[in-house]
Amino acid sequence: MPGGLGWRRLARGVAVAVGVAAALVALRVVPAILLGGPGYRDLILWKQSSGRMVSSFAHARPWWFILAALPLMLFPWPWMPGVWASLWKAFHDEDWCLWRGGS
Fold first, then answer.
1. Where are the domains of the chain?
2. HSE of 100 in the Cβ direction (CA atoms, 13 Å)?
């Protein structure tokens, strides 16, 4: 498909991005786990990662906090109608659309 981004190429790009991210995390975590011992392993994998996100006072927010922060997180996308219009056109283009025969 000339000029388009086929689903195979997109899937390959996502896989490469996830692989690179995992490799970067592994560069930090694997040596720490191997050199730190079992106590440090539990601390770094559970207390510092999931424990802080679940039970930390610093992350305690009401349920509606995400709704209040959403405009800030999405900025500037809602204020760019030209981008949305071109995405809408590309999404409905016969040659690009994956479920209408595009590759």
1. 1-60, 62-103
2. 8
50 class by beta-carbon count within 10 Å (0-12 exposed, 13-18 middle, 19+ buried): exposed
User: CB under 8 Å to 95, separation ≥6 — which residues?
Assistant: 1, 4, 102
26-35 contacts, C-beta under 8 A, 24 or more apart: none
Q: What letter represents residue 29's amino acid?
A: V
Find the angle CA(16)-CA(86)-CA(98) to the nearest 5 degrees: 50
Whether the pTM exceeds 0.85: the reply is: no
Q: Which of 42-46, 75-79, 83-87 has the highest mean pLDDT?
A: 42-46
What mean pLDDT value characterizes the chain? 78
**Separation of CA 31 from chain center:** 25
Q: Match 């997180």 to its residue by tokens.
A: 73
What amino acid is encoded at 99 in this protein? W
